[in-house]
Write a structure and sequence with these properties.
With 149 residues, the protein is an alpha+beta fold. It is built from two helices and seven strands. Strand 5 and strand 6 form a beta hairpin.
């Protein structure tokens, strides 16, 4: 694979993923290393629809959505590596293991979603993900996903 580090803006992300508002949870991808890893960026704002109910008096980003954002970042690694842009392919979670939430994520935070491929075989890929805010680990997970075209 190429050692070149790529980055993607929101329009390039939308070419790779079928997700749209309110479920598109990454704003930018930086340091994409084809077949290996990427860092996704999610700018958490007070305008996120999930904050209306989670929780009105103390808005906290749901942990499951942090893991989903890791999965979307991993989906970019897969899509760009396999040249699946605009293919209409979907990425489905198959498993999530060792999921841990370490700190709260609140409006104004910038989530840095580090994903690294652990292994892949055909259309099944396994990743390790870590989410950071201000260099502090806020969540971690190991997850497997299947690509369906």
């Amino acid at each position: 694979m190429s050692e070149e580090l790529l980055s993607l803006n929101i329009n390039e992300i939308k070419e790779c993923l079928p997700h749209r508002y309110p479920m598109l949870l990454i704003d930018r991808v930086e340091e994409l290393k084809l077949g290996e890893s990427a860092i996704g960026i999610k700018n958490v704002t007070c305008n996120e629809p999930f904050f209306q109910g989670h929780f009105p008096a103390r808005p906290i980003m749901p942990g499951v959505l942090i893991v989903e954002a890791m999965g979307q970042t991993a989906g970019i690694v897969v899509a760009k590596t396999m040249n699946l842009e605009k293919s209409g392919g979907l990425v489905y979670f198959m498993s999530m293991d060792n999921v841990k939430f370490r700190k709260l994520v609140e409006p104004g935070d910038v989530l840095r979603l580090h994903v690294t491929k652990e292994k892949s075989r055909g259309n099944v890929w396994r990743f390790v993900g870590n989410a950071y805010v201000n260099n502090a680990l806020v969540a971690e997970a190991t997850f497997t996903a299947m690509i369906v075209l």
